[in-house]
Amino acid sequence: MRVFMLGWEFPPFISGGLGTAxxxxxxxxxxxxxxxxxxxxxxxTNPEGSHVEILSxxxxxxxxxxxxxxxxFRHTQFRAVAATLRPYARPDEARTEDEDVAxxxxxxxxxxxxxxxxxxxxxxxxxxxPPADNYAGDLFSEIERYAALAAALAIDEEFDVIHAHxxxxxxxGMAVQAETGRPLVVHVHSTEFDRSGLHVNQRIxxxxxxxxxxxxxxxxVSHLTRSIVLKHYxxxxxxxxxxxxxxDESDAPPVELxxxxxxxxxxxxxxxxxxxxxxxYFLAAAKRVLEVMDNVRFVMAGSGxxxxxxxxxxxxxxxGHKVLFTGFLRGNDVRRIYRMADLYVxxxxxxxxxxxxxxxxxxxxxxxxxxxxxxxxxxxxxxKVDFWDVDxxxxxxxxxxxxxxxxxTLRDHGSFEVKRFSWTDSAENCLKVYTAALGPTAS
Amino acid sequence: xxxxxxxxxxxxxFRLRRFSxxxxxxxxxxxxxxxxxxxxxxxxxxxxxNAVLRELIDRHEGRFRVAFSLTGLIIEQFQRFxxxxxxxxxxxxxxxxxxxLAETYYxxxxxxxxxQEFTAQVDLHRRLIQRLxxxxxxxxxxxxxxxxNELARAAADLGFQAVLCExxxxxxxxxxxxxxxxxxxxxxxxxxxxxxxxxxxxxFRFSNRDWPEWPLxxxxxxxxxxxxxxxxxxxxxxxxxxxxxxxxxxxxxxxxFLRALPAAIxxxxxxxxxxxxxxxxxxxxxxxxxxxxxxxxxxxxxxLSAWLGNAMQSNALHELYRLEPLVLERGDEALLHDWRRLQxxxxxxxxxxKHYADGAVHxxxxxxxxxxxxxxxxxxxxxxxxxxxxxxxx
Lengths: 443, 394
Hints:
A: alpha/beta, nine-stranded mixed β-sheet, 15 helices, about 40% helix, B: alpha/beta, three-stranded parallel β-sheet, about 45% helix
């Protein structure tokens, strides 16, 4: 089996769960002996500290080849095409406030420090990276450019199926399909309804819909997402499958972290600070918790277009001194913040899957997750709450902080359960979808 | 000659309402839900099953005999939500063919935590049964058949003549559960051991179409009973009363089976029916049944792990019983009753994480989505109770 895979982010050029998922899935497919040709837009050209490198700026520009220097992949090749797709970009926004918070708490009026270093571990799922420095121009023309370049690249390649991840690559998938006649599998990691609520961008929706309808098979990351795909995109249910995301046991050598001594309990939010992730519900719950307990701090790790509003909201509620905004975290900082936490909270309004609870559990942190998340379908040893039910969220946070046996039971069972989420299983399920997409003659 | 000894457990807990840390007031119990469940089970099980038993006792002129254990809590719920069920139990009692057993009023685990509280609850229950049914229980069954040598001694000290417990293979060895036994150091006490194979054939396997013996008929079962005793004297069929109509729906034919069974048993000529007290009076003990560790009739483990299998359960129980001296000292009847209702084993059963990830088990009328929700709710209620005692949160 040879797969022509289209993505738009991949570690270390990562901004969110999609890159982490693509990495985990591709590596597991690789281990199963599936040959993957992974086509990425060249959004980031600084490979410092990375394990997937572009040959050199000059040759890369000429040939678009990326060489994997880590030895993690045996059957996978990477190709970069000269398009710049900024992860989680919105066509209707110029610059976001992504950069407003950079390490430590935000000091109003303190300039905009820029981060230069981009190589990082894959752990920081759900966090928005800063925009590429060279980002300019119109997102939709970049998407079309990516599609054209991918189709041109595909002409010279042999493969069985096309696998396209999320809407920015759907046009490319369709173009490759038109060019080669190979079956297209689109993988829905999120939909416009998850990201934007009811304020759906019509052009994005149209692209998503076209991609899903053109596809031979549609993979959704949860039944929650599958139901959105059926309901809002009118896709034939017979071709829509669910393949859950997973988590690999960490490959990174264990880092000795300095022991943390503190008196306060720490409740953690980690993710993009955007409407989809429900940060305001986290703060509202924090307010309620603090009415009952005093020795608690709430950490909001991540950046996004709602960060300013969140800082203001905490101040208005009079809990500013109890809430820490860390800005965007990477690598060991992510692992450190997980290990400091007594509880991880994912209050997402709409979360197609939600990898961060699995990361938290693998770092021995119990989790409280929104019922409006795909991962809530499969994770048993987690506390669950409706994202809007702030009192119940607070009730559960307080219980975990006050009752060590609850904390311990959730942690012990959860960190065991999380080992069940294996990318190998997900890859095997993808392989079944490929086989189905190829039809009876191919298998 | 062997006797079939039927004993049915009748119990429903007072389930807690959703109680948040932000809730005030001291109404802990979800009466609408408890009423709804009780009415449902009454309609499906208690009323029709009692009617069948009454019919059978009349038809066989007292040769069909059974025993019940009704917890104090289900009696309270009958009085409150379905008095006609209590009337039908009274009618059964009047036939003289029905024995009522003793247990802890609150279906509690008190034996494990407080001997004083255990004794008080057994006493409360015994007096309730006397008052309602005009008979004084002589046979004891502890909550969920939780049992060890110590329990036997405690029951003997309280004046009981016999105790029911699980006939566990690892304790019986080659011996048969069809004989009576006695506990070490108390040869005066009789032990009746549950025949779990034949009991579970009815309680769990009856409607299972994958079971090679399906469908189970009264005649087939009577043959097994005849075969099971050999040199034995008793076939102890112990089960939840909800087996009839609730665990096994009427559509499975469970009532027809029950209707046909006495005739099939009595027709053989070598088998009859006796209640536990009658068995204890009629048969000698065959040997010693030594149970140093706790056993129960729950799950495949037959141990305490359904109620004490994780840190939350142990924490909740420990915190609950820690309040005992304060509650007793206060002398507030309502508070005492609330505290005791919190002791019902079901609350801790809901907190079990055994096989939870497999999506299995502990689901029967369980009001919670997860064992964690159950623990949180319970601890919030306990906090409130503690506050009523003038104590700060744990």
